[in-house]
């Protein structure tokens, strides 16, 4: 292929997305044909430049009135671009794991849920980062709850590191962050007049990016 845009969009129906190479812009559109999972039009210009359109009827003019001399309609992914987008970062995922009153370790059922969630979400994420934010309810005072939140964050981190090690996944320790809180989150809910359920704040919130 000549010096060109370098990306031919052959993706399943997304709403509308854009990506740019050099100074060009590519717009990914819904399928050009009804009932097709994938569609697209590639326009190749005499000067080697290329453009992508989602409708054959628009092919005559894309840039400065230049007419295209080659139009190809795709009804399935071009193998050359089948893996396009695979290296894009995955969307962050987040889950909540709950503690019993005054406890700094997860109950077996919550521990099983954490393990299953990690198994599902840490694979296939090169360069992942993990954030563990631990909280408490409002009972017991600030000092007690601050220490309890620290212990909860440390306990969940230990479980995360154990799973990563068992899965032979390379994650730098600096990419696992503990953010122990205290009772402040729960207190802010009470102060704002929102419904307060103590269990909801005896929690570690784990986010994988």
TrEMBL record:
Boundaries of every OmpA-like domain copy: 98-169
Species this chain originates from: Erythrobacter longus
Record-linked InterPro entries: OmpA-like, OmpA-like_sf
Pfam (any one): OmpA
Source domain of life: Bacteria
Protein name per its UniProtKB record: OmpA-like domain-containing protein
